[in-house]
Amino acid sequence: MLASYRAIPATAPVRLAKKTSNLFRARVRNDAPGLDTSGLVGVISVDPDARTAEVAGMCTYEDLVAATLPYGLSPLVVPQLKTITLGGAVTGLGIESASFRNGMPHESVLEMDILTGTGEVLTASPERNADLYRAFPNSYGTLGYAVRLRIALETVQPFVALRHVRYHSLSDLVDAMNSIVETNDLDGVRVDYLDGVVFSADECYLSLGLQTTTAGPVSDYTGQDIYYRSIQHDIGTLHDRLTIQDYFWRWDTDWFWCSRAFGAQNPRLRLWWPRRYRRSSFYWKLLAYDQRFQIADRIEKRHGRPPRERVVQDVELPIERCAEFLDWFLRSVPIEPIWLCPVRLRDRWSLYPMRPGHSYVNVGFWSSVPAGATEGETNRLIERKVRELDGLKSLYSDSYYAEKEFDELYGGENYRAVRKTYDPNSRFLDLYAKAVQRR
C-alpha cells in the first residue's frame, strides 16, 4: 500500500482503487492511479477470550461475521449490507439495530493503524494520536485510510426471536421506541435489537429482536419471501424467528426495499432471478450502470415525464424531534417506506457532534422524486428541515450545503487543525470538496 501511495503524483488527489462502493456520491472523473488496497482484506485474527478481532481495513462485514460467529461472537454493530467494509463503516458512520445500546461501529474500535497524508502509517487510539482517533469518524478518507483495526466483539446466541409491533400513529411509535432505548425492555422482555419501518402515518412498526438459544423453525428471506413485507400486519404483534446470521443480513437480499426498482420483487421475475444475485452488491452494479448511461432519465423522457432527482439519505434526529420530522417528511416528500434506527453514542466525536448519552433516531429514505426547477431541490429542502430540528445528515450521498454552513456542522476549526497535523501538504481532498463538490 505504501508503494502504491508513493506512486501517486504529488499533484493528484489520493483515492482508493476499489471495484465496489457503498457511497451514492457521484464524483468528478479522475485518471490518476488509485491507492491499491488489495492486500488489506480479510480478518487477521479473532481472540475469543479477549472478545476482540484484528481486521484489515478493507475487510467486509460479510467476512468478519463469518469469522466471528463460529466463536459465538459478533461485532458490536453489524451494518446491514454485506459489502460494507470495516474501514468504511468507521470513517463513514455505519449503523444498525444494535446501535441503541452499542452506538456506531467506530465506538467499538480499540485502536487502528491509519495511512496519513505524510505517507506514514500511524496508530490511533484514545491514548495515541487521540486527535486523529476522534476526528477519523465521518472524515470519509480525507484524514487517511484505515489499514488495520482492532475492535471489540460481543457474545451472541444462534437465533433471534422477532416481535414486529404495529403502531397507528407516529407519536406512539416514537414514544415506545424512546422507552425501549431507556430500558432495553418491552412488556418485561429484553430487547437486543431495535429498528423500525414507516409505511405511512398510520402504518408503522418497531421490530424487536431477542437473542436466544432455543431451537425451532426459522424463516428464510433469501428466496421468494421478502423480509420487509413480512413485517406488515393489521394490529398488535407478529412473531418471527431467524438464525443470527440471517438476521444480520435480513436487509441485504433486497437492499432493504430498493430491489423493487429492478423488478426483483416481481414474483415471476424473482423466481428466475439467481439467488447469488439477490444481494445489495449486485443491485449496486445495476444502479451504477443506470447512472453511467442515464437509463432511467431516458425512460422518463420517452414517456414525457421530467427527469428524477435522487433522494438517498440517512439523517439523525434527536428522538424528541423524530415524530415531527416524520410527519413533515410524509407530507412533503413522496417516498416510502422509511427506515428508523435509534442510536445513542457513548462519547463525543469531532466531525459528527451528536450529544453523548442522548437518544437519536437514524431516518433512512432511499428513492427518487420528480426533479424540481433547481438542482437538488428536494435534498436541499431536507437539509434545511434537518438542521431546523437540530439534526445531522450523513455524507455518503449528495449534499448541497454552503461551505460556511458545512463548516459549522462538521468539525470546522478542529477538522482543519487535525488535517494540518496529519496531512500538511493536502494530499487528501478536504471533506467539503469530497462530500459537497464531489471531487
Summary tags:
439 residues, alpha+beta, Uridine Diphospho-n-acetylenolpyruvylglucosamine Reductase, domain 3, eight-stranded antiparallel beta sheet, 18 strands, globular
Low-confidence stretches: none
CATH 2nd-level architecture of the domain at 2-156 = 2-Layer Sandwich
Count of discrete alpha- or pi-helical segments spanning 4 or more residues? 16
CATH fold topology of the domain at 2-156:
Uridine Diphospho-n-acetylenolpyruvylglucosamine Reductase, domain 3
Strand order of the largest sheet: 14-9-13-12-16-17-15-18
State the major sheet: 8 strands, antiparallel
Percent strand equals 15-25%
Mean pLDDT: 92
Q: Based on Cα principal axes, name the global outline.
A: globular
